[in-house]
Amino acid sequence: MPAFLSLLLLDPRLRSARIKAALLLYAGVLVAGSIPGARAEVGEFAPGVVLHGFTYAFLALLWFLGSTGSGPVRAAKAVLAIALMGAGDELVQSFLPYRNGDVRDWMVDVTAAVLTSTLLAVLLPQDSVRQR
Predict the structure, then answer these.
(1) How far is CA 42 from each of CA 22, 76, 89, 101, rounded to the nearest angstrom?
(2) Deepest of 15, 28, 33, 53, by most Cβ within 10 A of its Cβ?
(3) Closest CA relative to residue 112, chosen from 62, 25, 64, 52
(4) Domain count of the chain?
């Protein structure tokens, strides 16, 4: 299993697939968040901070591993992408009568991306971080 996980997360041939997976997951978040009452039902199991934190940390992981360049460059790309995605999510919510866009949610999204990207840039072996 570790070899499969390593292949899935570190193989440079799958970089574009990771970016596409992040975009697909983000689209799913937008659609699911637009369903009336869905957020309230999920909120019974986890508060919004936890949902935003884990969701956008995972998106940052996918974006970081799908990007090219050095660790800090990939981290910057991931944080920028998540900042834009989070802002888009809050913008969509602000147009829905049963949802509210909230800057604090966006800040949680960006914080999750910064923490995730920084950890990945520091902890991943440099040969797996560099562009091949």
Answers:
(1) 21, 31, 17, 17
(2) 53
(3) 52
(4) 1
Residues 6+ apart with CB under 8 A from 28: none
Q: How far apart are CA 8 and CA 11, in angstroms?
A: 6
For the segment 3-36, what is each residue's pLDDT rounded down to a tens digit? 655 656 667 788 999 999 999 999 999 998 888 8
- Closest by CA to 62, choosing from 85, 30, 39, is 85
At residue 131, the pLDDT reads 47
* Alpha carbons 58 and 109: distance in angstroms, whole number: 10
* Burial degree of 65 (CB within 10 A; 0-12, 13-18, 19+): buried
Domain, as residue range, for 107: 2-129
In this predicted structure, which of 15-29, 73-87, 92-106, 112-126 has the lowest mean pLDDT?
92-106
Q: Could you tell me the two tokens for 93?
A: 């919510």
Q: What pLDDT is recorded for position 132?
A: 46
Tokens found for residue 38: 């869905």
Residue pointed to by tokens 């990939």: 74
